[in-house]
Amino acid sequence: MGTAAAGNISLIGTGTGTLDGINIASNAAINREIFGAGGSVSLTADEMNLAAAIRGSGTLQLQPLTPSLGMTIGGIASSSSLNLNGSEIGNIAPGFAQIFAGGTNSSGPISFAGSVNFNAPTTVRSPVGTGTIDTAGFNIGGTNSLTLQAADKISVTNSTISPLSPALNFTVNSDADSSGGGAISLAQATINTNGGNIILGGGSNALTEPAQGNAANPKGVNIVNSNLNAGSGNISIRGVGINDRGANVESSNLQVSGTGNIAINGRASGNSGSSNTGVSLFDGPANTIIRAVNGNINIEGNTTSPQNDSKGVAISGVKLQTTGTGNIQVLGNSTGDAINGSGITIDQRLSAAGGNITVTGTSSSHIGVDIKSPIGITTAVETAGTGNIAITGTGRIDGVSLRGNAINNSRLQTQGTGNITVVGTGTFGQGIALRGGAINPGATGGSGTVRLQADKISFDPASRVNGTGLLEFLPLTSNLDLNIGTTTLGNTFSQINVGNLDTNGTITFRENATFNNPVTIQAPAAGGAINSAGFTIAGTGNATINMNADRSIVTGNITNPGRSIAINSNNGSIDTSAGTIDTISASGGAILR
After folding, report:
1. Which residues are paired to 60 by β-bridges?
2. Dihedral through CA 349, CA 354, CA 355, CA 358, nearest 10?
């Protein structure tokens, strides 16, 4: 049976039970095969027997006559589903532009009962109602593109997806009818596309719309104990969770090479459960990694849930790494007023060999960006070469927090010429807080600028800040409260600035401070003042101490043996009566007022 020109072939069979609605036998009298030259071939029946070749260059559609009837691919005949076994799939000759297994109105479950190879771009679909797809532990080979599309849940479990062609674009598209319920689950899955894209999402466009969790399957996208490798292609994951995580990657590796990018986007909501986090990257017992080379890694998570521990993004034990020029960006927002609901938490390593790292978090109830080291883990955000680090946090408690423990610290580190910029806003806590945290914890650190900008900055004695370039403490609005202690700062900075030429508020020291390098404490803009009353500012090493303000300067003790101290007020008073100004040493030092 065939068409010489580009006409269409449509066969509709009405056999019931295990009887064939359509039977294409190897000894059929009509051409021994179906051949659609350039048009489409459509076979519709509740059971088919395809024992001869099907050829064409247009589209091929294989669909049940009853839309709610399920399909079994790779299995044996069944009265409860339309079966297409492996041999029948193999009889579909290469050359079709597109194969559709399932119709546009299909709503029954589709499951795999054996491993199969598709010789043309293929969409397996049950896109309306309660349609689901389950690979059920069998492997699938695809040519050019393979799409799994369902209205409800799609499960890829104990299965390998791999290309028959040089590269395979693999798409998992749940919630295809945009009804708001259709999750994606990958468990013990291996997906290798050899340069094709891997897309996990939902709605009418899985690249831009999310898979949707529901009451039965609350996580939008759940990837557990799986390996995804797109080669030089891209990986895109989008999910929305209901009373659970939007996108959950657990004990799983995601890798791309060349200029391939990785993007994970998750949203969470709900008023029950806990840890309703937008994007959760969790290691479990494995040592897992999300890696790109010259492409970028972008993580974005949002939660509106008020439940405990609901975060925008939680990175726990999973390493994020770019080994070439790729950048890493993490954005997280927690707006549901959850207890411990940080915008972003990080307790593993983010590293970029030649790119930049940007982390931006907001929390309405807790910490904007919380970088912490559990016992036995040194959490690090680090770049090499010219890569910069930018951390911005806004929180009800602290804006940005670097927390360590008795054994390990959390750290921001540049190993080249890159800059470190930390900007924090804490409504009831600190803008920037180092509690056992470190910036450039090595003996010297990188040569770039370290800029800390907040209205309240606090370091505990276990914290460290090093570098060989410029160190800046800047107010975010006008006033700056500084609590940096006496043992925190390294001795290799070229210059330390507290405030800048635009500072017009009051710089207030809340603790004794020791500077090992030249320091300028300045608030020279109109209204600017300095107050260190009750505390000692000390200079060691090669420090010189310069104070400059528009208005009043009030000090406690200032000591800098053998080196200069300069205090200048443009339009106000200088009051040193609460302490002494001391440069006494064998060589002496200048005191200028």
Report:
1. 41, 99
2. 40
Beta carbons within 10 angstroms of residue 129's beta carbon: 17
Collapse the DSSP code of 423 into the 3-class scheme (helix H, G, I; strand E, B; otherwise coil) and give the result: strand
Could you tell me the two tokens for 457?
């900055």
Cβ proximity of 61 and 41 under 8 Å: yes
Phi, psi of 249 (to 5 degrees): -120, 115
CA–CA gap between residue 57 and residue 365 (Å, rounded)? 59
CB distance 33 to 54 below 8 Å: yes
DSSP letter for 193, please: -
Residue in the block written with tokens 């090479």: 257
| Distance separating alpha carbons of residues 347 and 75, to the nearest angstrom | 46
450-453/420-426 β-pairing: parallel
Q: Which among 481, 397, 403, 389 has a CA at the least distance from the CA of 438?
A: 403
- The residue among 273 and 32 whose pLDDT is bigger is 273
Residues 6+ apart with CB under 8 A from 287: none
18-58 pLDDT per residue, tens: 434 444 443 322 234 666 556 788 999 998 888 888 988 89
- Whether the full predicted model's pTM is greater than 0.90, yes or no, is yes
DSSP 8-state symbol, 436 = B
Q: Could you give the 3-state DSSP secondary structure of residue 86? A: helix
The per-residue pLDDT of the chain, averaged, comes to 90
Cα 132 → chain centroid: 28
**Rounded to 5 degrees, what are φ and ψ at 87?**
-65, -40
Closest by Cα among 356, 349, 299, 290 to 326: 356
**Backbone angles phi and psi of 536, in degrees to 5:** -105, 130
List % helix, strand, coil for the chain (3-state, nearest 5): 0, 45, 55
Query: Taking Cα atoms as reference points, which of 193, 190, 175 lies closest to residue 132?
Result: 175
∠ Cα 221 224 226 (to 5°): 110
The amino acid that residue 64 corresponds to is: P
pLDDT for 593 equals 59
Q: Rounded distance, CA 322 to CA 383, Å?
A: 10
Q: Pick from 257, 344, 263: which is nearest to 302 by CA?
A: 344
Look at residue 90 and give its three-state secondary structure: helix
Give the N- to C-terminal CA distance of the chain in Å, as an integer: 103
CA 106 to chain centre: 35
Burial environment of residue 425 by CB neighbours within 10 A (0 to 12, 13 to 18, 19 or more): buried
d(CA 481, CA 578): 19
